[in-house]
Amino acid sequence: MSKHVSVAAIAEAMLDGIGSFYAKKDPQHVNLVRITLFPKSLANDFHRAMKNKEGTPLKDERGFFTRAYDKGKQLFTGEESFEKKVLTRETKSLLINIYCIDQYRITQAQKLIDKIIEQETQKRTISDETVAKFEHSQVDLIIQMCRSHDVQLDIDPKMYMITLQGLKGDVAVVDGNIRCMFQEIAKQEKIEAEALALAKDIQWLYLEGESYEKYPPLVNQVIENDFQKQKKICNVTIGSHQYKIRFDFSNPNNSTEEDVRNPTNKVNMKRYDNKTKKNTLALPKDWAPMDGSAHVKLVTLDSSSKEYNFVQQKFKVTATGNQITKIDRIQNSKLYKTYMARKEDMDQKNGSKNNELQLFHGTTPDSINQINTNGFNRSYCGKNATMFGRGVYFARDASYSVRYSGPGHLGGLLLQSTATVGTRQMYLARVLVGDYILGNPSYIVPPTKSGDILYDSVVDNTSSPSMYVVFNDTQSYPDYLITFQ
Fold first, then answer.
1. Could you point out which of 150, 322, 366, 434 has its C-alpha 20 to 30 Å from the C-alpha of 173?
2. For residue 388, what are the contacts with CB-CB under 8 A and spacing of at least 6?
3. In 3-state terms, the chain is what percent helix, strand and coil (to 5)?
4. CB 213 within 8 A of CB 229
5. Omega of the bond prior to 39 within 30 degrees of 0, cis?
6. Cα-only R_g, the chain
7. Residue 439 contacts by C-beta under 8 Å, 6 or more apart in sequence?
8. pLDDT confidence of 395, banded at 50, 70, 90?
9. pLDDT digits (tens, 9 = 90+) for 96-142
10. More confident position, 407 or 31
């Protein structure tokens, strides 16, 4: 501390600064102002100075503590290019004057402040192909969230990457909201995939002039869902116009569409049922009947059936030390049709029918219901492996998937002995591997094969793959759930 400045003068200047801040800024969320003194012996003199200052009017001019605080003209500035958006914070400076009896204590105080800053701030990177699918409105929403939470943002859709930087709590809030947006996009993509698959089975058409035109897949899905529910009227929106569909259940081809704005304007409709013809999206003939509107059903296989023995033999090729106790067939009509629609597209794209393999996937009890209902999803399947990319992993050998099955494992390492693990589960899945290439930990999607065409999957070894990774959730179907010990 300078020998020429008294404790009382320092206390007065600091209190003037704090008082000026309150007078000018009228803060609403400041509950406590803490003043730290070095050394402790200054406390009595400082306290006396505070008592003398109590009750005196605030000065109009700023104190030195307030002068040290530079708010800046704005908190954020936005920078935008065609493929990238950056939101940086305007630098905010706070000058802290540290008064100590020697340089050593000043250095210690500086280190403590640096440590607090390091502990309270965080830089977090989110890598997901969904980043490239954000619409302008969604990007604007993320920017707004970052502004309100004082978080620096860098969105690079070309690299499928978002970088956040700020206080840990604020970064965590923004990160959580962004991941919720990922889930909503994935949910919408699932609905769209189901709509496309349905359109290959059932297609509603409306009369336009002298010919019938197809309804868009999502509208077609709404119409068919209401038709199956036996609703007399279905309300749909196409563009900015609203329409009422009036069903004729005795003859669907007599159904009509009317414009809500002009009810007298009616057009005829037709329902084209492709299921009456040869259809690759038809459900397997050996499936058990599905109950009512339920689209998911587990059927336990008879241990003496050919189907059971087929699955068991594939399992026993490598998992010789494990015993199967039950095999369930997963009957998920929506998921199956979505998968088969994807298979049709891949077969057409690759010019072959050899795009599909039956592969194993180890799982934990907390993921089974999700997989049975929604299929394999990277958000809960990519917990253990990223060596060849950030997708869903499938193994050629059941023995490998054993390592990732049940609650007693972490990243392929058994945390319990096989004697105490109990029953475990893995899937025998149908997987569209298509054209593949060697994987890489940085892959969020498969690399480019030619032009804008990507490879279908990646593997651990292109000459003799034992591990396959897919990045699209519609490229796999959970055929059988194997319970074993």
1. 366
2. 438, 439, 440, 441, 443, 458, 459, 460, 467, 469
3. 40, 30, 35
4. no
5. yes
6. 32
7. 387, 388, 389, 458, 459, 460, 467, 469
8. very high
9. 888 888 889 888 888 988 888 888 899 999 988 888 888 888 999 99
10. 407
| Angstrom distances, CA of residue 191 to CA of 145, 226, 367, 431 | 27, 16, 21, 20
Token pair 């009422």: residue: 244
- β-bridge partners, 424: 484
Q: List the structure tokens of 2.
A: 């300078």
Start-end of H helices in 202-216: none
- Amino acid at residue number 260: V
Burial category of 105 from C-beta neighbours within 10 Å (exposed 0-12, middle 13-18, buried 19 and up): middle
Q: Output the furthest CA–CA distance in the chain (Å, rounded).
A: 101
Q: How many helices (H) and strands (E) does the chain have?
A: 13, 26
Cα(241)–Cα(323) distance, integer angstroms: 60
What distance in Å separates the CA atoms of residue 405 and residue 306, rounded to the nearest whole number?
A: 25
175: its two tokens: 């990160």
What are the helix (H) ranges across 288-442? Answer: 306-316, 333-350, 365-374, 378-381, 398-402, 418-421
What phi and psi, each to the nearest 5 degrees, are found at residue 391? -130, -160
Residue type (1 letter), 386: T
pLDDT in tens, 424-450: 999 999 999 999 999 998 888 899 988
Joined tokens for residue 314: 């594939």
394, 429 Cβ separation under 8 angstroms? yes
